[in-house]
């Protein structure tokens, strides 16, 4: 059987798919729509796509690095040879050293840790104290010691985009005439369009790190990024990416389109409400980079359940879910029930009077 040829999007280089309903070639990455007859032959390497400048590890760098493999979750963690790693930062299970760094690209940039381990521990304790329904046992020091600094792999994308968005603006005016309350609703067509350029749109390259968790501790300031050197790994762990750049392109395109639409939406003011009626995006990919971003991770087992917390190692932004004390929750519900009963009794008594 003949090999299936892949047709590339003229705008972003993504794989085009034929849509039977429209009889057009559609790009799921940038949203482009094209006449099948106008698409270049797949053998012609002239379709634009993100330009990659990534490099492999040098022999000297590879000789100073070790890889740890977790038998439980499959995580591969890079460290300097002098770093002692005894547990996986993702699941907490012991890891074994494999002594290999092949099969992965060398990062272009790294944002060094700014938040120290002690500062991270204090922030975790503060976070737990703020939530009065967390069990007292969870607040104790021995739980908060389970914290590890990990450099998480990120793919960064530069691109330009032409965005055109049609909005529906609504203005509501209310007034009173005699015994009547009046309301007037006016509708407006609003159009915004323009060229924009985005740099360093981040997409994390780790399957083990939930995307919503990484999105929640953003942003990272790329202005503080430096050229990568293995010395930055000293005392920390570095996750090996297991999602390559090509697989991250779709998320990068989605984030670029969302950012472009948000920028245009921010210019529409003076209305009671604004909704999007139609949008058109033409994405022009430019360059991709590979970087390591600093994250403090905490994994803890409590009553048979794993709780994961993450902190931006640059800004200190913190996110996570705490366990809830059933006893404290019962006290809350008991108080609410008593208050609710009192309200119902008062309502019933009031109705009885009438």
Question: Can you walk through the features of this model?
Answer:
- It is a single chain.
- By secondary structure, this protein is of the alpha+beta class.
- The chain folds into two domains: 49 residues, N-terminal domain of TfIIb (Single Sheet); 278 residues, no CATH class.
- It contains six helices and 15 strands.
- The longest helix has 28 residues.
Task: Using brief descriptors, characterize the structure shown.
354 residues; 3-stranded antiparallel β-sheet; 6 helices; 15 strands; 22% helix; globular; disordered C terminus
Quick structural gist:
The chain is 22% helix and 36% strand. With 354 residues, it is α+β, with helices and mostly antiparallel strands.
Write the layout of secondary structure elements.
Layout: E1 17-19, E2 24-26, E3 33-34, E4 51-52, H1 59-63, E5 65-70, E6 76-80, E7 95-97, E8 109-110, H2 117-130, H3 141-144, E9 147-177, E10 180-204, H4 211-217, E11 226-227, E12 237-239, H5 245-265, E13 273-302, E14 305-312, E15 318-320, H6 326-353
Parallel strand pairs: 4-13, 8-13, 9-12
Antiparallel strand pairs: 1-2, 2-3, 5-6, 5-7, 6-12, 8-11, 9-10, 9-13, 13-14, 14-15
By DSSP, the count of extended strands is 15
Report Rg.
27 Å
List the total number of helices: 6
**Cα separation of the termini:** 85 Å
Strand content: 35-45%
């Amino acid at each position: 059987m003949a090999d299936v040829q892949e047709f590339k999007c003229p705008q972003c280089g993504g794989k085009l798919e034929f849509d039977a309903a429209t009889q057009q070639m559609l790009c799921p990455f940038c949203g482009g729509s094209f006449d099948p007859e106008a698409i270049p032959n797949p053998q012609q390497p002239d379709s634009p796509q993100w330009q990659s400048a990534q490099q492999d590890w040098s022999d000297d760098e590879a000789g100073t690095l070790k890889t740890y493999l977790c038998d439980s979750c499959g995580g591969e963690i890079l460290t300097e040879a002098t770093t002692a790693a005894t547990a996986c930062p993702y699941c907490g299970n012991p890891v074994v050293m494999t002594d290999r760094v092949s099969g992965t690209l060398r990062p272009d940039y790294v944002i060094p840790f700014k938040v120290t381990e002690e500062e991270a521990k204090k922030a975790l304790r503060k976070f737990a104290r703020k939530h009065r329904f967390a069990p007292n046992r969870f607040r104790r020091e021995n739980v908060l010691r389970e914290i590890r600094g990990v450099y998480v792999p990120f793919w960064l994308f530069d691109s330009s985009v032409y965005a055109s968005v049609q909005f529906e603006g609504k203005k509501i005016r209310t007034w009173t005439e005699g015994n009547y309350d009046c309301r007037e609703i006016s509708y407006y067509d609003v159009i915004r369009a323009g060229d924009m350029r985005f740099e360093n749109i981040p997409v994390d390259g780790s399957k083990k790190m939930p995307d919503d968790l990484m999105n929640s501790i953003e942003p990272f300031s790329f202005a503080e990024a430096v050229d990568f050197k293995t010395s930055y790994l000293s005392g920390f762990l570095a996750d090996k990416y297991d999602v390559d750049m090509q697989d991250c392109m779709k998320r990068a395109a989605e984030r670029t389109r969302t950012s472009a639409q948000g920028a245009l939406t921010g210019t529409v003011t003076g209305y009671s409400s604004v909704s999007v009626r139609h949008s058109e995006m033409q994405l022009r990919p430019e360059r991709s980079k590979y970087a390591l971003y600093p994250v403090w991770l905490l994994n803890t087992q409590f009553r048979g359940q794993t709780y994961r917390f993450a902190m931006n190692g640059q800004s200190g932004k913190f996110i996570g879910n705490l366990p809830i004390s059933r006893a404290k929750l019962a006290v809350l519900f008991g108080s609410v029930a008593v208050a609710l009963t009192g309200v119902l009794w008062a309502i019933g008594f009031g109705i009885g009077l009438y």
